Amino acid sequence: MDANTAYLTQNTPENVHTVEHPLSGGKTLEEILSNIEMTIIEEKEEHLIIDLVGIEAPIANALRRIMLSEVPTMAIEDINLWQNTSVIPDEVLAHRIGLIPIDADPRLFKFKHPNEEHSSENCICFKLHAVCRRLEDGSIVGDKVMSGDLQWQPFPNQQERFGHFKPVHDDIIIAKLGPGQEIEAELFCEKGIGATHTKWSPVCTASYRLAPKITLKKEIAGENAINLKNKCPMGVFDVKKGKAVVKNPRNCTSCRECIREDDSMVSLAKVKDHFIFTIETTGALSPRDIFREAIKELRDKAAFWLDKINIYKRTPKS
Questions:
Q1: Whole-model pTM?
Q2: Beta partners for 13?
Q3: Chain-centre distance of CA 90, in angstroms?
Q4: Cα torsion at 150, 152, 153, 158 (round to 10°)?
Q5: Angle between the N-to-C axes of helices 57-69 and 287-314, in degrees from 0 to 180, rounded to the nearest 10
Q6: Confidence of residue 276 (pLDDT cuts 50, 70, 90)
Q7: What pLDDT is stored for residue 235 in this prediction?
Q8: Where in this chain does the record put each DNA-directed RNA polymerase RpoA/D/Rpb3-type domain (predicted)?
Q9: CA nearest 209: which of 269, 277, 290, 160?
C-alpha cells in the first residue's frame, strides 16, 4: 500500500493519515521545495484551477484561508446617505451597496486608520443619485437603481494617477423605486481584508480537493465495460474498442458508485500531496493575482514567526 495514497473502499477510506513529518526520510528542505510543482489547468477572467503537487495539507489549507480572508481589496465602507425615500431601510440599503465589488487595485492604496481623513492615498469616492419619474405618456423611467449608476468622484490627482474606477459589474440591482422616490448618497471605498468583513473578500469561493487516482484492476470488456461507464454520473469512464478506459479521472467526486456492488474491477484512491485548487473571484482582482498575493502573505507570516523564534533563541535564559 502506497503511503502517499488514500484508498476508497466500499465501506470506508483507508490509509488516510499522514504519519511522517515532511522532513523525515533523509530529505532536506531544499529537496522538498525542489519537488513542489504548480500547473495552471484552466484560467478564465474570474476562474482559475491550479494543480499543486508536493505540499502538505496544512500549507494548502493556509493558502485557502488566506485567499478567503487576508488578501486585501477595495470595498465601500462609509456612506453619506443624503436622501432615501425608497421602501428599503437606510441600513439595509447601505449594506447592499457595501457588497458591490469594486474594480480597483488595492495595491495602489494604503490602509485607512480609524482617525485618518479620506484622501487620494486611502480612498475612492463614488456618488449615487437616482430618481424615478413618470413621464407624460405614462411610462416610468429610473425605476431600477443599478451598480452602473455609481459615478466615480476622483480626489485630486487620482484621475491622472489611476485612470478610472468603477464597479466590477454594472447590472447589479441596488433598489427598485416608484415614481417620485429618490436615492442620493456619497460612497467611500477603503482598503480592507475579508477577516474584517466578507465584502473585502476577493473570492466568491476558494477550495481544494485531493487529486483522484483511478485504475482498472483488470481488463473490463463487453457488457461489463458498458455497465461501468453508465454507473458513473460524472463520465469518468468510457468504452473504446469494446474495453473500459479511464477517460476523465479528474471528474471523480468519490461517489463510489463504480465499486458499490463490486470492488474487484476498479481501484479508487486520492493522492495525498496533489491538490486541485479552484478559485472563483468577485472580479475585484484576477484569480492569478489573488493566488500570488496569498503566497506572498504566507511567506511573510513564515518570516515573521521565524524572526520571533530566532529572538527567543537569542534571549538569555534565567
A1: 0.86
A2: 8
A3: 30
A4: 160
A5: 110
A6: very high
A7: 93
A8: 47-308
A9: 277
The residue type at 258: C
Cell of 296: 506572498
Secondary structure of the chain as H, E, C letters: CCCCEEEECCCCEECCCCCCCCCCCCCCHHHHHHCCEEEEEEEECCEEEEEEECCCHHHHHHHHHHHHHCCCEEEEEEEEEEEECCCCCHHHHHHHHHCCCEECCHHHCCCCCCCCCCCCCCCEEEEEEEECEECCCCCEECCEEEHHHCEECCCCCHHHHHCCCEECCCCCEEEECCCCCEEEEEEEEEEECCCCCHHHCCEEEEEEEEEEEEEECCCCECHHHHHHHHHCCCCCEEEECCEEEECCHHHCCCCCHHHCCCCCCEEEEEEEEEEEEEEEECCCCCHHHHHHHHHHHHHHHHHHHHHHHHHHHHCCCC
Tally of CB atoms within 10 A around 44:
11
For the stretch 2-22, pLDDT in tens is 788 999 998 888 888 865 555
What is the Cα–Cα distance from 166 to 149, expressed in whole angstroms? Answer: 10
Letter for the amino acid at 222? G
Convert 191-228 to b/e letters by CB count within 10 Å (16 or more is b): bbbbeeeebbbbbeebebbbbbbbebeeebeeeebebb
Q: Cα–chain-centroid distance for residue 93?
A: 26
Provide CB contacts within 8 A for 50, sequence distance 6+.
38, 39, 40, 41, 276, 277, 279, 291
Cell (9 digits) for 248: 476523465
The single-letter code of the amino acid at 78 is D
| 129-141 mean pLDDT | 94
Q: Cell for 65?
A: 484561508
> Which region holds residue 312: left if phi is over 0, alpha if psi is between -120 and 50, else beta?
alpha
